[in-house]
Amino acid sequence: MKKSLFALAALLAVAGTAQAQTSVTLYGVIDGSIEYVNRVGTAPANPVASGTPTAPVGPRFDMPRAGGLSASRWGLRGTEDLGTGWSALFNLESGFDWDTGNLTTAPLFNRTAIVGLSNAEYGKVTFGRQYTAMTDGLINFSPLRFAATYEPGVWWLGVNYRQSNMAKYTGNFGGLQAVAHYSFGTASSVQAAGTGQALGGGETPGSIKDNNAWGASLAYFGSGVGVGIAYDEWHPAPSTTPGNTGRERKAGIGVSYTTGPLKVMGGYRYRDSAFNTGATLIRDDYWFAGVNYQATAALGLQLGYYYSNVKQFRQTPTGVSTNPANPQQVAFVADYNLSKRTDVYIATGFAHNGSLINDGQFTAFLFGYPQAPGQKNMVGVTTGIRHIF
Questions:
Q1: Distance (Å, rounded) from C-alpha 37 to C-alpha 150?
Q2: Greatest Cα pair distance in the chain
Q3: Domain positions in the chain
Q4: Residues pairing with 356 in the sheet
Q5: Which residues contact 338 (CB under 8 A, 6 or more apart)?
Q6: pLDDT score for 49
Q7: Is 33-388 a CATH 3.40.50.1000 domain?
Q8: What does the alpha-carbon distance between residue 339 and residue 344 come to, in Å, rounded to a whole number?
Q9: 3-state secondary structure (DSSP) of residue 339
Q10: Which residues does the UniProt record annotate as the domain Porin (predicted)?
């Protein structure tokens, strides 16, 4: 027993020395909740081939793997002072299902895996798997702070809101943030589902454009006012025919105003996505508005409204173009801080003409809200506890 304690003490001493030299931090979030949804269907086994949920249909009462407000995750990040104002940095972050302990999706560091250089004056350059410039530029205008449940964040920013094989620049100049990125090739099962076809892995020899992506954003915050604009372009390519890319273009704007405990925000996102044949996959306009109010030092209230005008949708390149009903959703969160790191909450969402958070083919039914054919409304309520470490 004494030997075990001595070994543990020695290990902690070494870890402390390493941390002092490189400023390495272990961090994470665990968010667990219980949810009731009034009526959901069964997701298709292959959302790329078929986006239509099936029976059985009915109410669901369970523990959602995504958590209520935040996706559970753990990570390591650190910096090293190189002198003359420069620092080296890294960040590794992995998402997991809090209810089972399983990885959310493969690989191990599915959320972030980057290395880079930073300078307080010139900004930073990072390489690896990370968020797009559009995500960075608009995320602070999210009514529910990009909540894992009841906010259509993936619908808003796209299934490619996080990309692999990316080079990215981020600069902060006073209240202005400028971000630009280029991905040499990004694709995943979720992204494949969003395009309606199987994708290659990116970085195809002889086909530089296959699955590449790029974008930029500008955001300004000062005197209570916030404004952000962003553009994102992605060229998904089917695995069977390299060099024959599709195209998805998104552009968005967000605005906010903060005074005392009150923050109001709103925004718009344009999307035009096409198959590699040139046929339109989806063309939609997405609008959102929200209010945040810090009622007391411990209690925060968040209200969001989301509207999607789906002008054109086609399941396959040769399918018939349709103009489906426009999804709408209202969501509300009451969040109470028990301490600086722990909070409890209750959240509810009501969706009309669609699933909660617009879950469907474009999200690979990842969030578990498949809507039965002909179903008009869906209601969900979740309550849980979140701890940040």
A1: 11
A2: 73
A3: 33-388
A4: none
A5: 298, 344
A6: 67
A7: no
A8: 10
A9: coil
A10: 7-353
